[in-house]
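TASK: fixed-backbone design
INPUT:
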């Protein structure tokens, strides 16, 4: 078997690498399943977690466990959450060490405290493209319990999460995620290492929670300001934030002459502070 060239973070093509066993579970289109078959990449994704400050990990959508296999080698308590009944049966048969830690649930609808209580835990996985943004938003809702988050997304989404102000791809996901986490794009993965192969490249990222989880503004209002601003991203903030009915003297501030992609996360916090005294209760 040929050895693949080292490429982490990778810029070139992946050569032939050790692959997981042939599919025993059929990938289901409605679940957005694309099973990773390259064990070398799976091992690298498992290696993106530091296991610092926590001892428990939740893997979302393990499929046939190619990533799970390497997570289980870590000194941590590994849990997996999977909605596909066929995958759950396969995992129960394949990984005896996961007994009692395979949760047949929809991550987006499930209360994770049922698994971990108030304990800190990391989140990782090869995420279905069709719900990856929703997964990020749920992690943000539980950020006080999730110090680290890594995994594989559609490349475009992974880049957007990690993007900085000034880029056309910088948006809601970028600002809200980076308000609470340090975001790092790690490497790109080609379609050829999946079964079935997706039509686009994938990207692996890592998020590490910031030490200070409290924003210097009303957090609910901050989320509303960011989402409203990017709802009309081509307009200046003076126009896109009209629904807040701000006094003219506030709207004359120079920041309102900018477009949302020009504002860093810190600038959005400052913007929210300016708006906060005038926001009606149901806007907060």
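OUTPUT:
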């Amino acid at each position: 078997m040929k050895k693949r060239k080292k490429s982490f973070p990778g810029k070139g093509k992946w050569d032939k690498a050790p692959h997981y066993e042939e599919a025993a579970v059929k990938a289901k289109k409605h679940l957005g399943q694309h099973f990773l078959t390259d064990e070398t990449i799976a091992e690298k994704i498992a290696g993106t977690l530091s296991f610092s400050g926590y001892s428990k990990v939740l893997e979302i959508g393990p499929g046939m466990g190619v990533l799970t296999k390497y997570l289980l080698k870590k000194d941590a308590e590994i849990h997996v959450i999977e909605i596909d009944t066929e995958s759950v049966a396969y995992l129960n048969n394949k990984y005896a060490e996961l007994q009692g830690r395979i949760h047949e649930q929809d991550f987006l609808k499930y209360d994770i405290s049922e698994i971990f209580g108030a304990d800190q835990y990391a989140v990782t996985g090869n995420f279905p493209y069709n719900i990856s943004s929703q997964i990020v938003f749920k992690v943000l809702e539980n950020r006080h319990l999730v110090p680290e988050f890594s995994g594989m997304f559609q490349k475009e989404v992974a880049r957007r999460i990690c993007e900085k102000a000034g880029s056309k791809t910088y948006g809601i996901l970028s600002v809200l995620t980076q308000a609470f986490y340090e975001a790092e794009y790690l490497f790109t993965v080609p379609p050829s290492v999946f079964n079935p192969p997706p039509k686009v490249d994938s990207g692996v990222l890592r998020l590490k929670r910031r030490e200070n989880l409290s924003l210097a503004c009303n957090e609910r209002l901050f989320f509303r300001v960011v989402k409203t601003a990017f709802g009309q991203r081509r307009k200046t903030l003076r126009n896109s934030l009209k629904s807040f009915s701000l006094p003219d003297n506030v709207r004359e501030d120079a920041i309102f002459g900018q477009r949302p992609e020009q504002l860093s996360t810190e600038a959005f916090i400052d913007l929210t502070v300016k708006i906060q005294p005038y926001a009606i209760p149901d806007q907060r």
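COMMENT: The radius of gyration is 21 Å.
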